[in-house]
Specification:
This protein has about 325 residues and is α/β, with parallel strands linked by helices. It contains twelve helices and twelve strands. It has two domains: about 150 residues, Periplasmic binding protein-like II (D-Maltodextrin-Binding Protein, domain 2); about 140 residues, 3-Layer(aba) Sandwich (D-Maltodextrin-Binding Protein, domain 2). The strands form two sheets. Strands 1, 2, 3, 4, 5 and 12 form a six-stranded mixed beta sheet that branches. Strands 6, 7, 8, 9, 10 and 11 form a six-stranded mixed beta sheet that branches. Strand 1, helix 2 and strand 2 form a beta-alpha-beta unit. Helix 4 crosses helix 12, helix 5 packs across helix 12 and helix 9 packs across helix 10. The chain is globular and about 65 Å long.
């Protein structure tokens, strides 16, 4: 009898070990506002590493994705994604308050600064995204391109500036709110920007394309989207402002109650790993890790970053958006 029991115990241990060593399988869903080319690069690299896991993603602007998540979560419903990856870190405070996120601290965060992580473990920066100024090289010489946010108020740019509608893009929404909360800029800045004829575009990609196709001389644009177009040969250039740079940490988080939690964690681990971050860097994005080589000098950017009050953004984001919409007659 003792031999039978010992055999059964050993068999159970073997079965348990085999299960723990089994290849991950199934699928994982990601909601993201990141450009589709980068999402495809992540998908290909992830599935090459985990060929038995099918990675799916839903790509849309940040505003549309927040609306989609809100609709799915309505009346106790379940958000139909395992992982969410948007541009605006202030969105994640709302997600936390709504009970949409599951805490998860990836083992890959050993190489990520604590400032890029939620203290309660609900989200971690997946990339760094910085807003700056792009211009069409056929219309504007580099020496004449605006170098500061206030340079955009020069009458020579009247009716020649394009930006994304903050209600449609989480990255532009964050930039707008950070500028709105600043005593240096505030509502007066956006009124002056409107008075100088700035136009609103409905999507981030479209904004950059309007600069690239010479519809507008300059644009309030993102570093990595501009870099993508420049790499494809578009006649445009981009630089960070010489002061008051606004950088977003673009967090990634696990959805509470998601259908594929283990694979969701696996995808987060991959994105935050050195291998995953190198995929991002190869596709013109900026890594959050301290062991990934990049052409972008993040320390130089950080030295001129604008101070942002995240608590204020979390509490007053809608108020700032309402003020912006009022100024722009929306």
């Amino acid at each position: 009898m003792k031999k039978v029991i010992a055999f059964l115990v050993a068999l159970m241990l073997v079965m348990s070990l085999s299960a723990s060593l089994a290849e991950p399988s199934g699928k994982v869903m990601l909601y993201s506002s990141m450009q589709e080319a980068q999402l495809q690069a992540i998908e290909q690299a992830f599935e090459a590493k985990y060929p038995t896991v099918d990675m799916e993603y839903y790509y849309a602007g940040g505003g549309k994705l927040v609306t989609k998540m809100t609709t799915e979560a309505k009346d106790g419903g379940q958000i139909a994604s395992d992982v969410v990856w948007l541009g605006d870190p202030s969105d994640y405070e709302s997600f936390k308050a709504n009970g949409w996120l599951e805490p998860y601290v990836s083992p890959e965060t050993e190489h990520i600064a604590k400032e890029y992580m939620d203290p309660e473990g609900y989200y971690t920066a997946g990339r760094l995204v910085t807003m700056g100024i792009a211009w069409n090289v056929g219309l504007v010489d580099e020496a004449d391109a605006p170098k500061t946010w206030n340079d955009l108020l020069d009458p020579k740019w009247f009716n020649q500036i394009i930006m994304t509608d903050p209600s449609q893009a989480s990255t532009t929404k964050y930039w707008m709110a950070a500028m709105m909360q600043s005593e240096k800029y505030g509502e007066a800045y956006f009124q002056a920007l409107k008075d100088n004829g700035v136009e609103l575009e409905s999507g981030t990609t479209a904004t950059h394309n309007r600069v690239a196709d010479a519809s507008y001389m300059v644009g309030i644009c993102l570093d990595y989207v501009s870099a993508n177009l420049m790499a494809q040969g578009s006649p445009m250039n981009f630089h960070y402002t010489t002061d008051d740079v606004i950088t977003m940490t673009s967090p990634i988080a696990l959805i509470k109650g998601c259908a594929n939690e283990d694979n969701g964690k696996l995808l987060m681990d991959f994105i935050l790993s050195k291998e995953g971050q190198e995929v991002l860097v190869a596709n013109n994005l900026v890594s959050v890790r301290d062991d990934v080589e990049m052409q972008v000098d993040t320390s130089a950017i950080a030295s001129v970053n604008m101070a942002v009050d995240y608590n204020d953004l979390g509490a007053n984001l809608q108020s700032y958006l309402d003020k912006f919409n009022h100024i722009f007659d929306k």
